[in-house]
Design goal:
The protein is of the alpha+beta class and 144 residues long. It has four helices and six strands, in the order ααβααβββββ. It has two domains: 87 residues, Winged helix-like DNA-binding domain superfamily/Winged helix DNA-binding domain (Arc Repressor Mutant, subunit A); 54 residues, no CATH class. Helix 1 crosses helix 2 and helix 3 crosses helix 4.
Amino acid sequence: MPDTIPDLPIQRLRKTGLRPTRQRVALAELLFGRGDRHFTAEMVHAEALSHGVPVSLATVYNTLHQFVEAGLLREVAIESTKTYFDTKTSNHFHFFFEGDGELEDIAVENLAVENLPEPPEGWEISRIDVLVRLAPKRPKNGAR
Ligand SMILES: [Zn+2]
């Protein structure tokens, strides 16, 4: 795999109209240009520190939310206390590995959502989020 194209993250930032501050650029360089990824703010914070980018966790949170609003990232809320961010912003679904806390993409073609109820008058469906939660198989009682 070739390394990141150096100006790509900055170009992405510029297109959104977000001012390319040093911290935004540093975080964009960490997050984009290495394929699609899922991460939490804590993971980004640890990664930033290990790359010598001095940012606080609060700044990481704020920046990630700005990136979401600008359409650079998609937010995947697992629980009220656990939010992942996704560099793949197009429509797709997720497997969630409980325990590991890992997310894996499910292509839209591989899942059909049927028999959706008609939305209330004046409303339309804007997006459907599907999170398929996975747990390790447990041996059945008395199976051994
Ligand atoms: Zn995803």
